[in-house]
Design brief:
The chain is an alpha+beta fold and 495 residues long. The chain has helices at 9-20, 29-35, 38-52, 56-70, 73-85, 89-102, 109-120, 124-136, 140-154, 160-171, 181-193, 197-210, 215-227, 232-245, 250-262, 266-279, 283-295, 299-313, 317-326, 409-417, 426-430, and strands at residues 338-351, 358-369, 372-378, 384-391, 394-399, 402-406, 440-444, 450-455, 458-464, 470-479, 482-492. 53% of the residues lie in helices and 18% in strands. Strand 8 (450-455) and strand 9 (458-464) form a beta hairpin. Helix 11 runs antiparallel to helix 12 (197-210) and helix 13 (215-227) packs parallel to helix 15. The N and C termini lie far apart (55 Å).
Length: 495
């Protein structure tokens, strides 16, 4: 049985509601009567039949259009369920927004689903407003349950900083229950991300009063003090106790090395940090070990471990801040992001079956100005295919006089053009930088130029010409439709 036909009972519920004259709000009576017409019933039936035939996209679009036409939230809910069943979280999110918009404000279920889909789509900042609205409608017990659910999803966030900032804004609207130390700990870490060290420190000390042997809390408080270079004797005592409780925890050993560095014990600090990095190679630990080596005037060794850190996660905030502050020769200097690239592309998709093979080629121009990217795609003879404008949180595509808007640029390009072109953050990659947010790996050639970036499932191989100009970029990845190979050749790179 197709995965899209697991809920045929919904069709029966819809038809029962239509035939019995189900209760609608007064403002929706006109639309409801249209839905109860023969045409409305036919559209519901046609959508369910399309779903059974495997045409999930057609069924989804029909249900969503009907929901908007008839102002019926149940139809938007059905569209969302179809998208989830088809493994399309972006489309599910679009339907969930419509479901919430059409539902009475007292209904909490649509908001719960919308918030979950937003965070699963890594749109934590967009989840803040509906989450606050939901919390204000809930009892204290329900509020705690909502926060616990959000806390569990923090681990899935691609951009941990954005997720924690959003979590703090959400959790600050209610009183966080002291019954759950794990929830309090997440709240403390989120407070630190928004610069509320006072809230973070108070919350961690509240946890320790009830749980004095909580190693993670001891370490977090001690590291925070050491990182701010304050109360170092207390920081050392806290971290030392955490280390005694969890001697094999590499992150606690990293904290111990860091506080010893702050105390001027460089040799001991380096020994502990190198041991921590051996136990668990992490970009944070590489940043700390490199800084100790740098302070000991062992610059080559420092740069070597920083490069190892970039291979692990070039987007790590601690590593990025360290490189920005100490400025090794090969690091990219900070400057206002801007540039222009003009060239040609070729796309080849090797599908799971031969019938799924596809490809295409053409030209492109990408211009970057601060936080706005404009990507123009042309056909092989130079005619315009589409113009895509990308800003934080939104992307618009202009084609044949029509404008389509979406939150994710990559999904917009795929759905509109049928080509798996990575548009979001492309200017970062063309500049030899990683996209902000998600984890990334960077490798460099002997000249310090980026030779390879791995991020978001893509593997990028760089070919540099004279005058440090990018001549060619090869981008490959595996996906549910097969392997994707994209080759970019530049006529005017970053001029």
């Amino acid at each position: 049985m197709s995965k899209f036909t697991r809920k045929p009972y919904l069709l029966g519920l819809f038809l029962l509601a239509l035939s019995s004259g189900a209760v609608f709000s007064s403002q929706a009576q006109a639309q409801a009567s249209g839905l109860q017409s023969g045409e409305g019933v036919f559209e519901v039936l046609a959508s369910e039949i399309a779903l059974q035939r495997g045409e999930a996209g057609l069924a989804y679009n029909t249900y969503l259009e009907m929901a908007r036409q008839y102002k019926d939230p149940r139809l938007a809910q059905r569209a969302m369920e179809i998208a989830i069943g088809g493994g399309s979280p972006e489309l599910a999110l679009q339907a969930a927004k419509t479901w919430d918009e059409l539902s009475p404000s007292s209904e909490t279920k649509p908001k719960e689903v919308l918030i979950t889909l937003l965070v699963l789509n890594n749109q934590w900042s967009h989840a803040v407003k509906p989450a606050i609205t939901l919390l204000r409608q809930q009892t204290p017990a329900q509020q705690e349950n909502t926060l616990l659910q959000l806390q569990a999803l923090l681990a899935k966030a691609k951009d941990e900083n954005e997720a924690l900032r959003a979590f703090y804004e959400i959790a600050s609207t209610v009183k966080v229950s002291p019954k759950d130390p794990g929830l309090l700990y997440s709240y403390a870490m989120s407070a630190e991300k928004v610069g509320r060290n006072d809230v973070m420190e108070k919350t961690l000390r509240d946890i320790l009063r009830k749980h004095p042997n909580d190693a993670n809390t001891l370490n977090a408080l001690g590291y925070s003090l050491a990182d701010r270079n304050i109360k170092l004797p207390e920081a050392l005592a806290l971290i030392s106790k955490a280390h005694q409780l969890s001697p094999k925890d590499s992150f606690i050993l990293d904290s111990l090395g860091w506080v010893n560095f702050r105390l001027g014990k460089n040799t001991l600090a380096l020994e502990q940090l190198q041991q921590a990095f051996t136990m668990k190679p992490e970009a944070d630990i590489a940043a700390h070990a490199g800084e100790v080596l740098w302070a000991m005037n062992r610059r080559t060794e420092a740069e070597d471990i920083w490069r190892q850190g970039q291979k692990l996660d070039a987007n790590n905030p601690t590593l990025k801040e360290t490189l920005k502050r100490l400025k090794p020769d090969w690091s990219t200097p900070e400057q206002a992001p801007q540039g222009s690239w003009d060239g040609r592309f070729a796309v080849k998709v090797i599908g799971i079956t031969e019938s799924q093979n596809q490809g295409g080629s053409g030209g492109f121009t990408l211009t970057q100005d601060a936080l706005k990217d404009i990507l123009e795609i042309r056909n092989p003879v130079g005619g315009s295919i589409a113009k895509i404008t990308i800003t934080p949180g939104e992307a618009t595509l202009e084609r044949d006089g029509q404008v389509v808007t979406a939150i994710d640029a990559d999904t917009l390009v795929q759905n509109t053009l049928g080509l798996p072109l990575p548009a979001r953050g492309l200017s970062n990659w063309l500049s030899g930088e990683v996209r902000p947010g998600s984890e990334a790996s960077v490798e460099r050639n002997p000249k310090g130029q980026v030779s390879k970036i791995s991020q978001d499932g893509w593997e990028l191989i760089y070919t540099w010409g004279n005058n440090k100009r990018l001549d060619k970029l090869t981008m490959t990845r595996s996906s549910n439709i097969g392997s994707i190979d994209i080759r970019l050749v530049f006529d005017h790179p970053n001029e």
